[in-house]
Amino acid sequence: MQITEQVRSPYQVDERGYYGPYGGAFIPEMLYPNVQELKENYLTIMADPSFQAEFQLLLTDYVGRPTPLYFAQRLSETYGTQVYLKREDLCHTGAHKVNNTIGQILLARRLGKKKIVAETGAGQHGVATATVCALMGMECIVYMGEIDIERQAPNVARMKMLGAEVRPATSGSKTLKDATNEAMRHWINNPVDTHYIIGSVVGPHPYPDMVARFQSVISEEIRNQLQEKTGSPLPNYVIACVGGGSNAAGAFYHYLHETSVKLVAAEAAGLGVYSGHTAATTFLGKPGVLHGSRSILMQTEDGQVVEPFSISAGLDYPGIGPMHANLATSGRGIFKAITDEEALTAGFELAKLEGIIPALESSHALASLKTLGAGPDEVVVVNLSGRGDKDLATYMKHL
Amino acid sequence: MTNRITHLFSQQSGRLLNVYFTAGFPQLNDTRTILKSLEAAGADLVEIGMPYSDPVADGETIQLSNDKALHNGMTVKTLFEQLEGMREEVSVPVLLMGYINPVIQFGVEAFCRRCREVGVDGLILPDLPADVYEEEFKPLFDQYGLVNIFLITPQTADDRIRHIDSISEGFIYMVSSASTTGAKAGITADQEAYFNRVNAMNLKNPRLIGFGISDNASFERASQYAAGAIIGSAFIKAIADTPDLPGTIDGFVRKVKG
Lengths: 399, 258
Fold this sequence. Notes:
- Chain A: It holds the Pfam family PALP.
- Chain A: It is an enzyme of class 4 (lyase).
- Chain A: Its EC number is 4.2.1.20.
- The complex is a heterodimer of chains A (399) and B (258).
- Chain A folds into two domains: 26-61 and 97-211, Rossmann fold, CATH 3.40.50; 64-94 and 215-397, 3-Layer(aba) Sandwich (Rossmann fold).
- Helices cover 42% and strands 18% of the residues of chain A.
- Chain A has helices at 32-47, 49-63, 73-79, 97-110, 124-136, 146-151, 153-161, 176-189, 207-215, 217-230, 246-252, 281-284, 322-330, 340-354, 360-367, 392-397, and strands at 18-19, 22-23, 69-71, 82-87, 115-120, 139-145, 165-169, 194-197, 237-242, 262-270, 286-290, 293-297, 333-339, 379-384.
- Chain A has a six-stranded mixed sheet, with helices on both faces. Chain A has a four-stranded parallel sheet with strand order 7-6-5-8, with helices on both faces.
- The termini of chain A are far apart.
- Chain B is an alpha/beta fold and 258 residues long.
- Helices cover 47% and strands 14% of the residues of chain B.
- The two termini of chain B are 33 Å apart.
- Chain A binds chain B through residues 24-30, 32-33, 171-172, 177-178, 181, 184-185, 188-192, 286-292, 297, 299, 301-305, and chain B through 52-57, 59-60, 63, 67, 70, 75-77, 99-106, 126-129, 132, 150-153, 155-157, 160, 175, 178-180, 183.
């Protein structure tokens, strides 16, 4: 297990909790003891062999890892390059999110926490959290925007069946950003017995690094699998979608220092980058502070956070994790803005060519293939972060 | 010029009342009326909230006042315009409270300069961490004569309280319980133990107790353990729908101070 192994690179977190100019812990004093406790303990706990054994066993027997790296023959022919799909959609619960929730709940248990709080947008992280809480017999409260509760009813039902209490976030825009605010407020009000499982590489340090490490199993496996299939652990491109950016952080992690590997991040452009209905943070955002870290966020001239828009609830976030903000600013990452329309087309294409229905989030990554310009002998890995069952209603509207 | 906050605490050591209100609430242009009425009614300090879209440390009442103020069109720039010339009308110490992002967008130095120009004395920025303050903000705050107010909570460790005391001026904002604003009412035995623990530390800065203070009883109680107290949510509720701001404010403050 590589979760404590980190190749030094300017793209990894530094000792102060920053990725270049981004990161840090911009939190009210009420959260300081909790975040400090995590900061002081997460690396030690994660390095403990008994922790690693527990984590590894659950990833193998419960999540179903390693997930396949599948050579997509017909997709490759269509785009004239060698396309491999990292099948995170085959994880238990249907997306990569569970890699992180398993890691964090084991860590929470070692910190002596009794209860879990989480935020969710589309409900994937909420389901992954409710799942591990059921598994560990821990109380689970999930905050979800009132609007998302309506548009993601199947995931709300799943969380309830798993024993979680789903609480509507009724403030602000009533979506993911507000669910995150409510989860933070809940943690402020319940600091002693509760651990907050953040679902993405956002939040105050050490969350972005901790979540990235738990998700790094994705690129660890890609390296091994590519070595076997192509004779080299290094592809020419790794593509992943980015909302907050946890699946991308996992897929990029063990390639951050390998500068021959181009890291491609697909952001949600909604109706178009300049349409006023978009979530293309790195294209429109400015540096600022949201949810406890300094990063890039979409905001007004007055510094008020702007409501994002995307067909994909999982990418519908006005910020981006600090690791990705640094990849964007430094030029290490290639950022693409994918519209709703382009994502839908790519989703239908994968279904027809390969018999795989991708999550709308992952469809944004797939849509990047069109403008990638990869050569016939180049190897492209697309991180297929989740499956599309939850998005069927949306897909059907556009059939 | 002496800072009005440090001057106040050098003159008076007890039963000080700091009242919070959100700029732009209930109406966009109520700021000066509320400020003048608070001073006239006997508030000892005034804390003006700069509304923000994502106020994570605040409970429902202040969140809603933030939303309403933003909806009314309040911005940091507008607030400074409204405060222009306030020192010809009021002498009460004035603090601006808010979240760090709008301050960063305004430009930290420009923000400090405007504070100085209009006569603001201090800042409360709950999501500005102490280390970032010391590295990036303190020199500017010092240059423009602004004091930064830090929060401590029942969970804050003694060594951190001492560190915060060492970098604080004016007063320390003693959060009464683990909560967002307006969440819990009254003062329990656990909280008294915490206040006594902090008092026994002989800090150089006085404390004001905030969160859960809503009326004369809780104000008097808090004043037994600190230099005074801060009222926010209860005041916001009181002025939310009133047809007579000055009258309501006068009644509210006099009742709290007893």
